[in-house]
Design brief:
Blueprint: H1 10-40
Length: 54
């Protein structure tokens, strides 16, 4: 016989959501920083071609 699961508290839900949001925020900061370094030409850890093929 199946038993329904207990409901997750609102506090636990908010904590998990905030952890996810912080992780996304850190990833977006890194991506923006990499984009800025590529745009200025100061990137040392990312390899890319400077030629633009049209």
């Amino acid at each position: 016989m199946t038993v329904p699961k207990k409901r997750t508290s609102i506090l636990k839900k908010k904590i998990r959501k905030n952890i996810w949001k912080k992780k996304i925020y850190r990833m977006s900061i890194k991506a923006f920083s990499l984009a800025k370094s590529i745009a200025t030409g100061n990137s040392k850890s990312f390899l890319y071609s400077k030629e633009v093929i049209i």
